[in-house]
Amino acid sequence: MMSPTRMTVLCVEDEEEQLTLRRMIFEAAGFEFLGARGGAQALDLFRTRAIDAVVLDYWMSGMNGLTLATEMKRERPTLPIIMLSGFASLPGEGDGIVDAWLQKAGIDPEFLVARVQDLIRRNLPNSSE
């Protein structure tokens, strides 16, 4: 069972309309939402805020999602990270850097939220914390 405290998700996306859509989806599901338009802004939020899960776009200008995920996992190896991509999978998928790869196009918002919730639950030391 999830803790009664509000979970925080960081979404990283360089397309404003996609970021706005994810904000609506996660806030409607009861999450605190943090949005970043690129890797540098995401790392700043990651290092200064309590974050329970990250949803990344793979293709971003400046820093791709896999590079960003690698840096985040270096600092917090158990942080749940979901990568969204136009591809079903990409090189690095099986190396443990990200916890799930999902196709960006046509993703069901309820499925995305449920996947994030599931990964957060798995990351909790026990359900009473």
Could you explain the architecture of this structure?
The chain has a single domain, classed as Rossmann fold, CATH 3.40.50. Strand 1 (8-12), helix 1 (16-28) and strand 2 form a beta-alpha-beta unit. The protein has helices at residues 16-28, 39-48, 65-75, 109-123; strands at residues 8-12, 32-36, 53-57, 81-85, 100-103. It is of the alpha/beta class and 129 residues long. Helix 2 runs parallel beside helix 3 (65-75). The relative contact order is 0.18. A five-stranded parallel sheet has the order 2-1-3-4-5, sandwiched between helices. It has four helices and five strands.
Mean pLDDT: 86
Helix coverage percent of residues? 25-40%
* Order of the strands making up the biggest sheet: 2-1-3-4-5
Please provide the count of β strands.
Answer: 5
Task: Name the CATH superfamily assignment.
Answer: Response regulator
Helix/strand structural class = alpha/beta
CATH class: Alpha Beta
- Domain count: the total is 1
> Which sequence of SSEs, written as H and E, runs from N to C?
EHEHEHEEH
Tell me the number of helical segments per DSSP (H or I, 4 or more residues long): 4
**Principal-axes shape call:** globular
Query: Judging by the overall fold, what is the CATH architecture?
Result: 3-Layer(aba) Sandwich
The CATH topology: Rossmann fold
How widely separated are the two ends?
Answer: 10 Å
Radius of gyration: 13 Å
Distinctive features:
single chain, 5 strands, 5-stranded parallel sheet, Rossmann fold, 129 residues, 38% helix, alpha/beta
What can be said about this structure in brief?
The protein has 129 residues and is of the alpha/beta class.
